[in-house]
Amino acid sequence: MDISYHWLAALVTVASIISIVAAGRFVAFRFPAFHRALEFNTAERKRKWRDLGHKYQHRIKSSQKIGLLTNLVFFLVILPFIVTLEPRSVGRVLLDAFLVLMVYDFFYYVTHRFLFHGKGYFRRVHAVHHQARSRISSVDALLLHPLEAIIGIALFYVVTLAIALVAGQPFHVATIVITYVIFTQINQLNHCRIDLPYPPFRTINWIAIMHDAHHVDMHRGNYATITLLYDWLFRTLEQPVEQEKPVPVT
Question: How many domains is the chain partitioned into structurally?
Fold first, then answer.
């Protein structure tokens, strides 16, 4: 495997991610339905920050700092060694992206189910996140114990690095862009309050309500985060609970 430091490829990766996410948000929020969802989640974030600051403020600030530090380490120290601008076929790019996401989702499923919902210390760590009960909103994605914040982000990067090392060659820039955007945006979307059960938004609505079902209490399934394939395979798929109003954190 080429162990050169490909700083230009890493820079192109970061610029592409920022551009795609910004453009996607700009386009999405032009739709009235998405704009209403944004307004609701923004209002919930302000309410929880104001009324439940003792639970949210220090957790959110620490999660943001941990996320920034972990991302800096990956994008500056690790990514340049496992990314390249050398040509790859579209099929190879998509196959690599699929592999990274599905391998990560498997290990996240195992970590979430047996570590965070087990009987040891990490159950108490994860209980911080489960203070946010159905129905959750976007700010709840950052309601995390520092250990969970580190594990959740680092696991994605460790899987990405491991697959590159096993393959013996770096990923194309497009592969990293695709996987990172999907990883970050789904983890945000599945914590949003979205009530759009009609085309073309039905899939996004489904993502949100299926993870919301996990937050009803500490005894629910739906442990995976990218897809629910592993929940289906291992029979931990949880059906959503119908609720008209969000249940506040107490």
Answer: 1
